[in-house]
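Students often ask why we bother encoding 3D structure as a string. The short answer is that it lets us treat folding as translation between two languages. Here is a chain of 716 residues written in the first language.
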Amino acid sequence: AAMVQKYQSPVRVYKHPFELIMAAYERRFPTCPLIPMFVASDVVNEYKSEDEAIHVIERRCKLDIDAPRLLKKIAGVDYVYFVQKNSLNRRERTLHIEAYNETFSNRVIINEHCSYTVHPDNEDWTCFEQSASLDIKSFFGFESTVEKIAMKQYTSNIKKGKEIIEYYLKQLEEEGITFVPRWTPPVACKLESSASHTRRPVSPAINIPDSATKEGLNKEILNTSNSPSEPTAGTPDDKLDADYIKRYLGDLTPMQESCLIRLRQWLQETHKGKIPKDEHILRFLRARDFNIDKAREILCQSLTWRKQHQVDYILDTWNPPQVLQDYYAGGWHHHDKDGRPLYVLRLGQMDTKGLVRALGEEALLRYVLSINEEGLRRCEENTKVFGRPISSWTCLVDLEGLNMRHLWRPGVKALLRIIEVVEANYPETLGRLLILRAPRVFPVLWTLVSPFIDDNTRKKFLIYAGNDYQGPGGLLDYIDKEIIPDFLGGECMCEVPEGGLVPKSLYRTAEELENEDIKLWTETIYQSASVFKGAPHEVLIQIVDASSVITWDFDVCKGDIVFNIFHSKRAPQPPKKDSLGAHSITSPGGNNVQLIDKVWQLGRDYSMVESPLICKEGESVQGSHVTRWPGFYILQWKFHSMPACAATNLPRVDDVLASLQVSSHKCKVMYYTEVIGSEDFRGSMTSLESSHSGFSQLSAATTSSSQSHSSSMISR
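And here it is in the second language, the structure alphabet:
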């Protein structure tokens, strides 16, 4: 199972004419003090055309590979021989170099191609390109060791290549040679006679890997019509040059450059549609440690996703709804000390629940995507402004004000989904995350969120509790004093919105959220249910691990209800599809299921584990229950009927009127439930109970029965 390694270099540009570069290159032979492993070389074959335009030299090169003694002993060789064939065409001003190994050629196949050509835009400059392939068929059981040695030797030689040419250019200059005239055709050249030479094969043709033929390297040197000085891939813009990489993409190792070039070339050949910018392709490679196949896979998924959701046009065509502009407490704010764009998010001041309920996850996600797209744009801009590659941004998250509302599970769930989409489509964009003023509740949130975050990303998090960010190692290490925002005690007016509670009048109903035009999510977080007089809605939760935590969150959209939670040791019968007909049970908004059997008796077949909670129309209820036993738990929403007047047992007029107002005795609830393993909730129970909300508008009616550790919080 041999792995074929491939290498493709960027274009290296020498700002010297081809002829001078050739004079420098010739000096590498027969040996070169700058390449200690290159011990000797002998010319084994040579051909010159009569007009001296074509010169082909074949050499046998002796290399002393830096390999462990043991390996050399097993292999039974001290030196490795390569055949190198150089084909110079002075008329076209090109040099093509082909090399392959002679030693172990039945076990290991190495092919290398290099070319020196004239720069397409400047005839006094020279371009150099190099590609190679290594295929280890077998090597006495040491295949992977040999591969590592070969790759190490090869990459170190690539780096040296440029130094060597520059070294000899300098030597030539010291000798007073700074110009070498171009080839000119001899005056009286008999064309017939030179033609008789052309067809003489110089050496057996060797197998050229497909990557080379793509670049237009021809086996027959004399066929100049397809000269590689006209790159087959199209304009020279299609190729990356080494200086551009250094300036815009950063310091990459030769193999990293090669991965980028090959992935980019693959996209150009196969991808229909807009090809991402080089720095973005590079992010996907970095996210997969430059494993080209894995990077290609996630990049392709992301490109498909971008196309499906028209993400390329989001900045130009999508206007965030007013609610977002008013209540989303985040925005761009200058840049950090490294020149990275800085995004400030006042998460503690933000009503995530209100935003999810007023907008749906859809618009929220779309907004986060537009922020990321803007981030990519700003990185590009900062790369130009600061004169060095900047490919990620810094995010400052202020948690002042964070409380139980932020642990609202659907909100956390929406956050996790958003993180997931961002991780998949904007990898390696977060340079640093500064989390400030983390409160006691934070560790809970962190344990819920951190498993979803990639390890590479997690290393970039810095978390400060309280006012620690003002001390040593704090904010000033990362952000200039002049731009520290006012709300963090700085002098800079920060334009980021204050956040605050989203008014309930802006909330949308389940149906409105259902009927969104665009769906990025397949399912919504909430389920809706109808509750009728005599027909409660019940949800079954099976608990295996005794100390789990059942959490719930629901809004009473219409009518008044009573909320109960029961425990039973035996499973209820699956709900009967009763007279309502099957369709009404599953349809959104028509969900109504009874699980508790009519013949069951409370106290015998099932027990109540929480005292009933009466919830009025328009209330939001959030709570949790730590289970004491395994078995089956049933959450129940029941129609709340008016108590008859105690004194006379006759209904009071307003009660009658009230019950008539409830249309056809139907209530509506939007709910969400989830079971959390106790280990994920560790340490958070106390913070759950003692939390008081920083939102003054939150009137909390907290029912807490200590024996069962449950708490529900109602906000109106």
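Translate back mentally: Residues 193-236, 517-523, 578-589, 682-710 have pLDDT under 50 and may be disordered. Keep this in mind for the problem set.
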